[in-house]
Amino acid sequence: LGYLRRFPVDKIKIDRSFIRDMGNRDTAAIVRSIIGLGTELGIVVTAEGVETERQLDMLRDNGCVEAQGYLIGVPSKAADIQH
């Protein structure tokens, strides 16, 4: 947490291990706290490893506006992405 004060942080990423285990009450509380912290500090929060609609819904319900993972799109090589 000290890094949030010492360095110019513009994004917080929630690791996929937390997203995968959001069904656990304690893990869900941690995820909500991270989203709340980012919101209060004006820092964008991105959830990594979103694979189910339920995970995405839980994140949205708690104010997370950025997500990445297989539900959103599969990883691709930059050369394969069309403009």
In terms of topology, how is this protein built?
Layout: H1 2-6, E1 11-14, H2 16-20, H3 25-41, E2 44-47, H4 53-61, E3 66-67
Summarize the structure.
Helix content is 43%, strand content 12%.
Overview of this protein structure:
The structure is a single chain. With 83 residues, the chain is an alpha/beta fold. It has one domain (2-70). Helices cover 43% and strands 12% of the residues. The chain is built from four helices and three strands. It has helices at 2-6, 16-20, 25-41, 53-61, and strands at residues 11-14, 44-47, 66-67. A three-stranded parallel β-sheet has the order 1-2-3. The radius of gyration is 14 Å and the shape is globular.
Overall geometry comes to globular
Distance between termini?
A: 38 Å
What fraction of residues sit in β-strands?
Answer: 5-15%
The average pLDDT score comes to 91
State the share of residues found in helices, binned by percent: 40-55%
Mind summarizing the main beta sheet? 3 strands, parallel
Please report the total strand number as a whole number: 3
Give the number of helices. 4
Low-pLDDT segments: none
Q: Into how many domains do the coordinates divide?
A: 1
Order of helices and strands: HEHHEHE
Q: Specify the structural class.
A: alpha/beta
Gyration radius, in Å: 14 Å
| Biggest sheet: strand arrangement | 1-2-3
